[in-house]
Amino acid sequence: MRKNQFVSILKIGLFVFFLGSTLAVSAQKSTSKKVKEEPKDSLSKGYKDYDKLIEKATVTKGLFSIIKSENDYYFEIPDSLFAREFLVVNKISQVPLAINETGLNKGMNYENKLITFHKDSISKAIWVKTSKPMVSSPEEDAITLSVKDNFAESIIEKFDIESYNTKTNAILIKVNKVFNGKEKSFNDVLNNIGLGGSVKSDLSYIEKIKTFPKNVVIKSQLTTTVSEGGAAMYITLGVTSNIVLLPKVPMQARQLDKRVGFFTEKHWSFNDKQQAMKEQELITRWRLEPKAEDVEKYTRGELVEPKKPIVYYIDPATPKQWRNYIIQGVKDWQVAFEKAGFKNAITAKEPDANDKDFDVDDVRYSVITYAASPKANAMGPSVVDPRSGEIIEADIIWWHNVMTSLQSWMRIQTGPIDSKSRGNVFNDAHMGEAIRFVSSHEVGHTFGLKHNMGASYSFPVDSLRSKTFTDKMGGTAPSIMDYARYNYVAQPEDNVTAITPKIGVYDTYAIQWGYQWFKNKVDEKRELQKLVNSHNNDPLYFYGEQQSYKNTVDPRSQSEDLGDNAMLASTYGLKNLKRVTNNLEKWTYQEGEDYYKTGKLYLGVIGQWNMYNAHVTNNVGGVYLNTIQHGDGKESYKPVSYQLQKDAVAYLSKNVFTLPEWLFFNPVLKHTYAIKDSPLGPFEQTPYTLARALQYDALYNLLEDERLLRLVEAKLYNPENEPRYSVQNLFTDLRSHIFRNTKKGKSLELVDRMTQKNYVDVLLVGTQKIMEKTTVKNSATLDFHLDGSFCSVALNEKKQARNINYTSMKRTSEITSYKRQELQNVLQLLEKKKRKGDANTQAHYNDLIYRIKNTLKF
């Protein structure tokens, strides 16, 4: 065996071992026999004298008593906490400029792990073990013996026993090494945030340790150096580690129904009666339960207050004018929890100024943390008990610059119908309502809700132009968890005023499904199934999982689209974009200022146009993906209809492959180009270059192999014999439009020649890429998608709705044949018309002929 082969096998083995060894049994208990207790008068032999150790030390009582002696910190661990399960939660508390610019800020949770402490009196040591509790089995089943042996804990740390408290039998361990950066067992911040390297111990230290009844909070300053080919840059990170005692009995878990969108924890279940292991997904949710005295009221359908409500605190660093809007965004969810049977279940408030222990990084507090940063974003992750999916704390990060995204969306999408959305600066009330919307969306994630990108599809496009409909439904979609930003469909004459996303009927239904309390699992399973089935055919309750922006299969579930017909919605959207374009200078005018803001708004308009193109394109080769169950009579895969796909290509031909002069060649170019910010400063995008790149990108995406393969598949499997839009239909429709003036023998304008070059080049690149198994030319993809990711919760959220293979062995598929044949068709037309038109046109034809022949080897 060669050395490199051995190394590869070793790496694979270690990976498998690591994966297996990190799993554990949720019900697993320590199987080691209890060590015979030593007489208390002999416990101190061989150890530091406890009384002398604490004589000049500071002692703080709590979950672990904390003993600080000069620069040394000790945990005093009582016997009752050995083998109990704890969750280590690590967060960022401070960052320098270099880290801030990467989007890593205070309040972000970067690492969690479950640990247990085990006392070994013989070795005079405490072993710390870790596990991932995603496996369970009945204690009385024979297979449980195998489960325990095959999903064991792994040792991550060893502490020497320093001393005993002879009065309580508690032991002392010195913990400096795991919190000052010397060891990575409890806190591996550098690797988890992507910096790598090691902590410089001489420039790092423990700031303080606080202890409370159910958690310990450790704050540290950790320094490293980063060198990028130049002088070393010193980076000091403030980090906070929480050690949280988990309940002995985990919360009753609830299994996912894939027709409702919740984040989940994976779980494997074993028992003796199985013929196969059962894979489960446990939803993440807060533990909301009625008080014992209210159980009967609750079961009768009366609203009751939960034992422990969900409370969010506003970071004191939040500007005062926005606090009430953020608070209201949280409280707007009250109506949803009432649907689940609980009143006063949630609230948000500012922290008590007299609470000296308040700390935004303490897991006892769910905090909406305000980050001073250039990043324009917000996110809403949670800390979860991995044994059950119980959310124990929420960490919403609110970046200051998210308001720049909000202003851009409102100006571009609603400026034509709302005068308040036109200026360089909005009044506080108008911006406050936008902040309230984002607050509600992010808080929804901390309840366990995933994005529902399919919600907006349930609204007919023309209904979004109806004041009556929008007033009744409250916004742009039946779920605030969609990326249905603002109503860009409504026209000025429609007088629509409900243009902001609101909590909708899907949201209240999802909260009811996730949080309604039941006395037993039998009732829970029956009633929840009944609830989903009762709405299964109502489009308002449809759940469409988030997909990759660049690989969207189901066009119903797209980011930032509106309504049930992307072509119609985008047509209305273009009408409004023209109005914005005509007012670029007026809306951004500021005496004595340059045209930077005008150029930025101009780029935003182009980005919105480009986003409409993507919404429309995804209908071509689109497949509706439905989550179905036996007996519900639904189809799992249903191709988009022939007519909708043809309409999509017609839209693109009219608005993309005929370049919109109103957008790319308008009078604003006398004063500014479109301006895009970058780390190197603003970049001015010249109109011809920008238009050429974006049009190329649209063609490349439309003719990508996977999209064409979906068209082939739809044609092949068609038991109903419905008309299917085919690859041949697509090429015929595109060629007929792109070469329409060529067929007439006319001279071509620059933009016409540009479109033909883009079309031929996309075909050439696609053909070569498949046959050579390499990328001959990268797509000129430019991300002018209006920053649609104000929500970065997707740390554990899949971007693809379904894993469907349309890509294997593309070399033997029909795609290359179709693309080659289309090149032949174009070549034949060009040969016939190469002497038509002016000199520029003829030179253009000869160039295309040469390129095609050179690729096809004629």
Q: What structural keywords apply?
A:
858 residues, alpha+beta, Collagenase (Catalytic Domain), 6-stranded mixed beta sheet, 26 helices, 35% helix, 18% strand, disordered N terminus, Metalloprotease, metallopeptidase activity, EcxA_zinc-bd
Task: Explain the overall architecture.
The structure is a single chain. This protein has 858 residues and is α+β, with helices and mostly antiparallel strands. It folds into three domains: 3-30 and 73-245, no CATH class; 255-544, Collagenase (Catalytic Domain); 547-858, no CATH class. The strands form four sheets. Strands 1, 2, 3, 4, 5, 6, 7, 8, 9, 10, 11, 12, 13 and 14 form a 14-stranded mixed β-sheet that branches. Strands 15, 16, 17, 18, 19 and 20 form a six-stranded mixed β-sheet that branches. The longest helix has 23 residues, at 750-772. Pfam families: DUF4953, DUF5117, DUF5118. Residues 1-26 form the signal peptide. InterPro entries: DUF5117 (IPR033413), DUF5118 (IPR033428), EcxA_zinc-bd (IPR032534), MetalloPept_cat_dom_sf (IPR024079), Zn_MMP-like_bac (IPR034032). Residues 107-291 form the DUF5117 domain.
What oligomeric state do the depicted chains represent?
single chain
Tally of discrete structural domains: 3
Outline type: globular
Largest sheet: 14 strands, mixed
Strand content: 15-25%
Mean pLDDT: 90
Helix content: 25-40%
Tell me how many strands there are.
24
Signal peptide: 1-26
Pfam family, one: DUF5118
Domain DUF5118: 48-95
Domain DUF5117: 107-291
